[in-house]
Amino acid sequence: MSDFAPPPFSELVRVSARIGWLSFGGPAGQIALMHRELVDERKWISEAHFLHALNFCHLLPGPEAQQLATYIGWKLHGVRGGLAAGLLFVVPGALVMLALAAAYISAAQLGWFAALFLGVKAAVIAIVLQALLRVGGRALTTNFKRGIALVAFLALFLFSAPFPLVVLGAGVIGALAPAEWLGVKDGRSEPPGPRPRLWKTLATVIAWGAVWAAPMLLVLLLLGREHVLWEIGIFFSQLAVVTFGGAYAVLAYMAQEAVQTHGWLSAGEMADGLGLAETTPGPLILVTQFVGFLAGWREGGVLGSWGGGIAGAALTTWVTFAPCFLWIFAFAPWIDRLQSATRLKGGLAALTAAVVGVIANLSVWFAIHVLFARVDELRAGPLRVGVPDWASFEWRAGLLAAVAGVLLMRFNLSVLTVLAIAAAGGLALSFVA
Fold first, then answer.
1. DSSP character at residue 279
2. Taking a C-beta distance cutoff of 8 angstroms, is the pair 262, 4 a contact?
3. pTM
């Protein structure tokens, strides 16, 4: 049997739309859904090539499930197939997230809404902790990788080191370290396929780089560098380049910059945004759209609140996902050579280990800002640590976080179910004062 049995393009579009609307449950659930739809049921792609493509997508920055969908679409129907599969994986969730962000900003001042989202924020603590345990269990297979994770956590938690420096530095260390320290097998035993044409790769990079930059040029010409949309576009474009390890890996860095540096939203609103993103189909990284919406809504200027919010959400989504198409269309022809590069695998293994430390920092950051009403920053030389005011402990949030953790990790309930239970609990506890 051949690796591929390409369906009619209309059928690819129909199935991609179905996957886009049903892709709840984070990357693991989304990849499992694609495997069932495309490999098991329709046999459009073989098991071996599906796993081969998934390994390739792990090498790239950005959401691996969306990039896997784009790659399979590209392999079946070229660029138009990749665009159809990739866009339909994102657009349903983006539309739902935009509607939820609009509803959130409209009801944020209502007492019952705040109580509801107290439960959501508490559940987010448990969700991130579960992600930490899962990623750590898979990634930290050697003492060297455990050391990288610990150093990454300390650098971020104690010294507020720049996230890009931490993850890219780990990648460089992994590329230089002996393969056995990282548990990496030498892939050079499998000879790479024929060498793709370099000029085609460069042409693709230039074309999609232009697509990526097009709305930024429009913002620059019409609104200038001082407008919030320019700041949003620049920040999330930079984030797209270093988003290794999934959305949880960059959330602490994004929250730090969006909350503390730019002042686009509060720490509590950041946790609310993650809770909303957990309830939508599509990549969890759509939480960036929530941040872009609130930033544009509050600082829209000549566009007004709603115009700025919608423009901020649209621009954020564009600069977050346009690079994903660039990576796939430019580097998919090199897939065999990339996966036989031992140093690249070592760099990725070390980077993944650093991501565990990054998610640990995110867990602590969320827990402090959700469980305590007041958090001060302790500064002593290069040391910068968030220190909670213990008298401001929010017992209801603590109780709901503990319940959510038990439901997730002991009873294995779905994220959506736990979020619903925690939200209902927040509403019920609001009557207890």
1. T
2. no
3. 0.84
